[in-house]
Amino acid sequence: MRGLRTVVTLGILSAMSVALAILIRFPIFPAVPDLIYEPADVPILIVGFAFGPVAGLMVTAVVAILMALVTSLGGPFGALMHFLATGALVGTSSLIYERLHTKSGAALALVAGTLAMTAVMIPANVILTPIFYGMYGWTTAKVISVIWWIIAFNLVKAGLNSAITFLVYKRVANFVRNACLARRAKGETRAASSRA
Q1: Residue 176 CA: distances (Å) to CA of 46, 155, 167
Q2: For residue range 1-27, what is the model confidence (pLDDT) as tens digits?
Q3: pTM
Q4: Of 40, 44, 69, 77, which one is least surrounded by beta carbons within 10 A?
Q5: CA gap 47, 176 in Å, rounded
Q6: Out of 1-10, 49-58, 80-89, which region has the weakest mean confidence (pLDDT)?
Q7: The CATH number of domain 2-188, selected from 3.40.1190.20, 1.10.1760.20, 1.20.140.10, 1.10.443.10
Q8: Helix axes 41-51, 103-133, angle to 10 degrees
Q9: How does pLDDT run across 61-78, given as a tens digit for each residue?
Q10: Hey, which bits of 25-98 come out as E strands?
Q11: Residue 177 and residue 173: Cα distance in Å, rounded?
């Protein structure tokens, strides 16, 4: 039953991530309106902190695929870039937090994750964007010409999502943990009653 509760929890947080990506979307910098902020990484960061980096990366992959299938937001290219960006943020953050399980450790983990996402997306954009969108004018030279906007965007996006996660994680984690404990206790009570 514990495994089933974990799967259900991961499913709920995955659905929350997709919903946030669809409902809350806006450009951060008017000069590059294609770079859109959305808080979809917050539930995935919570998964990584609560269940570890492997679970965080699994949910990242699921959300990236779902976004490509149920929306027109980027298709396969969007799914790949989503996985690379969020995977770097969530994987790095949750790996560090798993070893430094304190409030200061969480802050350090989120800062490191923000920097990792920003670093990963520089070569990802320079290499992959021309491959997928070169026919639309996105040559390597054009991508490089806006690379500082890309760096600033990823710093701001990951920074905002990390800050939100830092503020809400404990409350959400405690809620999930208490709900799981309550259900477990209820199940054990029923099992004991059936044996009596």
Answers
A1: 11, 29, 16
A2: 567 788 888 999 999 999 999 999 999
A3: 0.86
A4: 69
A5: 11
A6: 1-10
A7: 1.10.1760.20
A8: 130
A9: 999 999 988 876 678 888
A10: 26-27, 36-37
A11: 6
